[in-house]
């Protein structure tokens, strides 16, 4: 795509670095900004620069938070004997919106992925192990995506905590509620048979 | 969507002002930037601020251009007797990529749209009429989208130039090449019958 202006080309190039934004979409977004008042561009760039400079994470669970300790960790009504391990804050939001979990979280900040150059030390794993050692945690729930990277990360963490005598579990993997069986992939369907659950339990959810 | 940080909320709000970017996508984009080195955010915001501050338009056709006169207007091999009227530079790019047009352009910067508060004076229409009066234009081709706003804009411009004795045309509207007839909308199909073209001409394109 050849553009008639170097300035425009640079703006489009930078915009298209964002995930899911191709050159065409980037051009549409930049042209949109050019049609709007200057103040809109300034507010956007200022908000992005500010959060990048001043971003803070909860000292306990590493969720993004303006306070030292986030609202969830600070909530005395939550069960502080359970920690749910997630990849990023979007997973916290997704689980919170189910209203099915009242324990705490630990945000890793990613998954172990050698392909992308992300190793255990790039994630908040050491802090998690320390947190488990130093508090009265009874159960750790792994809620990473059921991918190769997710499973690798689960296993890496599990090895470090298996001697601490706490219960470890993963969120159930199986056929999504409301989905047609014939469209399920073979791995999921196969595992859902192997890991079948007592009928009475399935009625509860 | 409730977020755990005001800073994050502001960045997501600003990002979701962009067209086609909802709150969820905006959150994904901001979280992505937070995971990348600071330099990426700085390059993006700097590029956006720079283009917004320093954007220049061709003095003749109003396409975005770093020079006073753009490459197309400056090209002596192009037919300067024809002007194709388009909404924005993406339309110039789309028509250029067909290699079917060798005339000049005039970029209006939008369409007349009372709903969005865009009137004739917000567009480069006066400059177009002046340009036609002052040069040896023989044909004006309207290439706006075939919508109510596009048709209104075409008509508004046409009224101002109809006495100048130049030829005015619109790009052909009809069934897209390769499309199944049964899926065409009724208005397009109806017009394509009324405005049918001699068979020999259809063979050429």
TrEMBL record, chains A, B:
Pfam families listed in its UniProt record: RecR_C, RecR_HhH, RecR_ZnF, Toprim_4
Highest taxon above the source species: Bacteria
CDD domains, per database record: TOPRIM_recR
ZnF region ranges: C4-type: 58-73
Keyword Nucleotide-binding set for record: no
Keyword field contains Signal: no
The Toprim domain, residue ranges: 81-176
Keywords assigned: DNA damage, DNA recombination, DNA repair, Metal-binding, Zinc, Zinc-finger
PANTHER family: RECOMBINATION PROTEIN RECR (PTHR30446:SF0)
Similarity comment text for this entry: Belongs to the RecR family.
Role played: May play a role in DNA repair. It seems to be involved in an RecBC-independent recombinational process of DNA repair. It may act with RecF and RecO.
Protein name per its UniProtKB record: Recombination protein RecR
Organism of derivation: Microcosmobacter mediterraneus
